[in-house]
Amino acid sequence: MKITVMGDGAWGSALADVLLHNGHEVTMWGPFPEYLAEMAACGENPRFLPGVKFAPGIRFEADAKTAVAGSDVILMASPTRFFRSVATILKPHFDPARQLIIDVAKGIEAESWKRPSEIITEILGPCRLTVVAGPSHAEEVSRGVPTLVVAASHCDSDARLAQSLLMNENFRVYTSDDPIGVELGGALKNVLAVGVGILDGMELGDNPKAAMMTRAITEMMRLGVALGGKAETFSGLSGIGDLIVTCTSRHSRNRRVGEGLGRGLSMAQVQQELGMMVAEGVEAARGVCALAEQAGVEVPICQQIRSILYDGQAPRSAIRTLMTRTPKAER
User: Fold this and answer.
1) Which of 122, 100, 98, 118 is nearest to 109 (CA)?
2) Of 130, 225, 216, 220, whose CA–CA distance to 179 is shortest?
3) pLDDT at 299 over 90
4) Distance from C-alpha of 45 to C-alpha of 55, rounded to nearest angstrom
5) What are phi and psi of 73, to 5 degrees?
6) What are the φ and ψ backbone dihedral angles of 307, each rounded to 5 degrees?
7) What is the widest separation between alpha-carbon atoms in the chain?
8) Which of 150, 210, 224, 249 could join 184 in a cystine, given CB atoms 3.0 to 4.6 angstroms apart?
9) Contacts of residue 316, Cβ cutoff 8 Å, sequence gap at least 6
10) CB atoms within 10 A of CB 78
11) What's the pLDDT tens digit per position in 18-71?
12) Could you tell me which of 60, 56, 2, 1 has the C-alpha nearest to residue 29?
C-alpha cells in the first residue's frame, strides 16, 4: 500500500522502516525541507536515530499535498505538542473516504488536555482511525529487536488493516477494540516514568521503584476507566507493558527527565541535556492531573510528579507525602 508518515522524528522513522521492510511504498513528510534533504542524502535520521540506515526506497517530501496524494494510509507520528499543527496542515489534502489514519503519538495536548485522536477528530472530522501503542522504543524497533504492540480501533477491520501493514517477524501486532484505553495507556505511563526516574536519580534502590510501578498501574487503570477505557487494557501491552519499558529503559526520555531531577538538576538543565528530543510526560503531567480532577479520580503519584515538575516540590518531600497518606486497603 502507499503510506505517508507525517513526522520526521525517531518513532516515525522507525515505523517508516518497518513499513518499507514489509514492502509498502513509504513517503515521509516533515516540516523542515532542509532536514528532509539531509536525511535523503545520508540515508538515515542523524538527529534522532543516528547510525540506523533506512531501507532503500523511502521518499522524502516537504510539500504536504504531494506527500499524501494517493496515499492509502496516513501515519501520524509527530509529538503531541505539534500534533494540532500537523493535523491542520494535513486537513486540506486528507480524503476521509479512502484514507486510514494511524495515530502513534503518546501524549496529552497542553491546555486542552485532549488525546491525539480527539485532536484528529476535531480537525479532520469523522474518519477511519486506529491507535497503535505498546512497549516500543524507536531505537530498538529500528534495529529489528523483537517488539510487540497493539492496534486499537472501534472498527475491527481498520485495526486488522493496521496489524497487517505493520506486522512482521520482528514486529508483532495485536488488535483491540479499546482505542481510548490504548491511547491513554501510552500517555499516562510517560508521567509515571518520570517518577521512577526520580527514584533512580536519588539512588533509592529497588523497593520504592517496584512499589511505584505497581501503584502506577492502579492509577492508570483508575483514571483510564473513568475516561472511557476498559480496565483489562491497562493490564496489556499499552498499559503495564509500555509502563515497564518506559520506567526501566536507558532509551526512555521520560525516565531521563526524572533521573536528572532526582540528581538535583533543574528542569532547565534537564531540558538542555535532552536537546531537541521531546519527553511527553512533562507536559502530560498537568493534563493527567486536570483530567483526574474533572473525573473525581485520585492520582496521588501523578499529583506529586506534577508538583515536582511545576511547583518546585522537593522529591524527598513528595515521597514523604505519598508515604504518609491515610492508610487504605490495597484495592
Assistant:
1) 118
2) 130
3) yes
4) 12
5) -135, 140
6) -65, -40
7) 60
8) 224
9) 202
10) 26
11) 999 999 999 999 999 999 999 999 999 999 999 999 988 999 999 999 999 999
12) 60
Give the span between the Cα atoms of 5 and 45, in whole angstroms. 14
For the segment 320-329, what is each residue's pLDDT rounded down to a tens digit? 999 999 999 9
Q: Own/partner pairs for 286-291, CB < 8 Å, 24+ apart?
A: 286/110, 286/310, 287/108, 287/109, 287/110, 287/113, 287/187, 288/108, 288/187, 288/188, 288/191, 288/223, 290/113, 291/108, 291/113, 291/223, 291/227
Grid coordinates representing 126? 469523522
Q: Domain locations in the chain?
A: 2-177, 181-323
The CATH number given to 2-177 is: 3.40.50.720
Cα Rg for the chain, rounded, in angstroms?
19
Residue 327, sorted as left (phi over 0), alpha (psi -120 to 50) or beta, turns out to be beta
CB 167 within 8 A of CB 146: no
The C-alpha cell that represents 286 in the structure block: 498537568
Closest CA to 201 of 321, 313, 316: 316
- CATH classification (class only), 181-323: mainly alpha
Find residue 74's DSSP bridge partners. Answer: 4, 101
Active site residue 2: no
Instruction: Answer yes or no: are the C-beta atoms of 182 and 238 closer than 8 Å.
Output: yes
Where does residue 150 rank: exposed (0-12), middle (13-18), buried (19+ CB within 10 A)? buried
Instruction: Say how many residues make up the chain.
Output: 331
Active-site position among 189, 209, 230, 328: 189
**Per-residue pLDDT tens for 223-269?**
999 999 999 999 999 999 999 999 999 999 999 999 999 999 998 89
Bridging pattern class, strands 100-103 and 73-76: parallel
Sequence-ordered list of residues with C-beta below 8 angstroms from that of 154, at least 6 positions apart, any chain: 177, 179
**Whether 287 contacts 184, CB under 8 Å:** no
**For cell 497518606, what's the residue?**
325
CA neighbor of 185 nearest in space, from 256, 226, 241: 241
Task: Assign 52 to helix, strand or coil.
Answer: strand
